[in-house]
Amino acid sequence: MSLSLSRRRWLALSTGVLSGLAFAETARPLVIGVIPYLSPSVLLNLFAPVRDHLQKALGRPVVMYTATDVPTYVRRCLNDEYDLLLSSAHFTRLVQRRSASIPLTRFRDSLYGMIYVAGQSGVQHISQLKGKRIALTDRTILVNLEMFRMLRKSNIPESDVQLRMSANMNSALLSVAHGEADAAMTAHFAIDQMPASQRSDFRSILQTDPLPNIHLSASPRISAGDRQKIQQAMLTLGDQANGLLFLQRSRFGGVELADEKILKTLDVYLADTLHYLGMQ
Question: Strand 84-87 vs strand 30-34: parallel, antiparallel, or unpaired?
Fold first, then answer.
């Protein structure tokens, strides 16, 4: 299967991926779509050990792609344009229900939504966010959905804040650092992707309850035998040094089998997700 023109326009997350590897000339690359929650360069550096481990374990080339924005990424997932998806848990559930993708594994450690303000900000509590500028990535991101639910519980409807849309979580945090926003909504691990010298410039004022983390799922086009090989390869990711470092650096902790019971708990987010995607 050759890459279409639209696929070539995606932001590629693998440069020189085949160098130094002796694959058969007929081997087709396994294409992984990664949700664009960080900048492309940060995603490349972060997930490169996953790509490399799968290549070695499967004996075939693996390439990673993202999209310019989350809605584009989700639509490509639903159009079955990727072989494998590294996606937020609720998007994994959405694609599972709509296109019969098969969840394989999930990262073990929980995901948390955070609201950060500048270290010197006078904002101490989410009740003080009324009228404030809040930077965030796409409205459909799981942590954002949960944080807006928490704001509503604190009697702060979305109409009471000024949203500043950012390309990714890095950009949302930088907008706070540059004084362009009063607060940023991100996942808990986004702060780790900032330069160490900048992390002390931020202070958190909210943390959500734990949420399921990123899942790996397979297109129904992938054979059962290949799905099992991919699943087993992911479960051994932490057995080699670079994979273990990735799991520590990302705060993913480890890899476990996907759990249908956990995925079903995410159905409560799907109506809002579809609404903000314009797909109802």
Answer: parallel
Task: Provide the whole-model pTM.
Answer: 0.84
| Segments in 38-138 forming alpha helices (H) | 40-58, 70-78, 89-99
Q: Which helix (H) or strand (E) holds 86?
A: strand 84-87
**DSSP at 239:** G
3-state secondary structure of 196: helix
Let me know: does 8 contact 52? Beta carbons within 8 Å. Answer: no
Q: Name the residue among 233, 223, 258 with its Cα closest to residue 96.
A: 258
* Exposure string over 80-107, b if 16+ CB within 10 A, otherwise e: ebbbbbbbbbbbbbbbbeeeebebbbbb
Paired residues of 204 in beta bridges: 116
Residues 202-250: tens digit of each pLDDT: 999 999 999 999 999 999 999 999 999 999 999 999 999 999 999 998 8
In 3D space, the residue among 91, 82, 11 whose CA is nearest the CA of residue 44 turns out to be 11
Tokens 């956990």 identify what position? 262
Structure tokens belonging to residue 151 = 């704001």
- Provide the token pair at 257: 């089998």
